[in-house]
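Here is a complete protein record:
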Amino acid sequence: MKCKNCGYENIEGAVFCAACGGNLNPTTENNESTNNTFKFSDATKVNISEDKVDISVDKNKIEDFVEGNIKLDENTNVGKDIIGMFVPKDKVDEVYNAAQNTYEKQKLENQNNNVNEVPKKKQNLNFKTVLIICLIIFVVIYIAVSYINKTKETKRSNSEITTTVNSESISTNSNALTTTTTITNEEYDKTGDFLLGVEDVFTISGKGTAASGKIERGIVKINDEIQIIGLNHETITTTVVGILENNRINKNEAEAGETVTLILKDISSSDVERGQVLAKPGSITQHTKFKCSVYVLKTEEGGRHTPFFTNYRPQFYFRTSDVTGVIELPEGVEMVNPGDTVEVDVELTTSVALEKGTRFDIREGGKIIGNGIVTDIIS
């Protein structure tokens, strides 16, 4: 379209001349209103009056500032001559600067909105992470509690098995061993020779040395003569001058099955110790070597996991004495496995009061791994 004032050829549809800024639309010149509104694109409208320029921008389409998809950002620059096609020449710079300021402001707002959305995403991520961690902790606690309960049940079961085995395992060899049962006072041998295993020794002021323990058989009375036997000590004969029950009640006599304290005449505390026995004179002697029948507990009964061989050195527990002994297997037997019953020879490192039928436990590391009964005295 040719400008009537200067003759400059403008593009089709232009309102003002790009060279002189004259109005190319005759109707616009005759318009009494001094206000003009121009639409740059779907995104931007400009309202021009004599004293100001008002710009309205669609925020959703701010990047399409002018038709032809020309973007107003830091990388591209909208030519002022394009704006001059729609705006009077003296208003071009003002419109251009105003449009840039509007765009930069909107761009900054968009960036701030994006930044504000980040914490929400992080918050959602953190919530999921916390949820997963809580679930893992719950599973770990559940597994730990289950394991602890299972361990307790296993220990309780092993304890019950060991208790049962200790009372019944000797019956495996019916020729030499009999079932161990709970013995009441009525079942103790009260007619046999007196025998008491010493559990504790102490001195009673004004009375003398006293030895306490449970009477295994027979009856003891005040003024009875008894012997102190065992643990490599020389056998000593003494007299009972007092009998106490529960260390308080004086008695004239005591019988098998009772736990009593015997006050001994002319005996020092070094003459008697735990592990020895008090017995009727001549009824029992101390020995170091004997034959016995032994039952070795199975692994599930609380016994060993591996077999043992000749020269095996466990602890032998007779009444209240605990001494080391050496086991010698019979000819033709190379080893003894858990659960076996075998006849063996034993030699103790310390002499103990023994006789045929004396029962004992075999211990290793503080736990019982077998039971036995003396079948013959060697020396």
The two ends are 142 Å apart (CA to CA). The CA atoms of residues 315 and 331 lie 23 Å apart. The chain is about 25% helix and 30% strand. The first helix runs from residue 26 to 30.
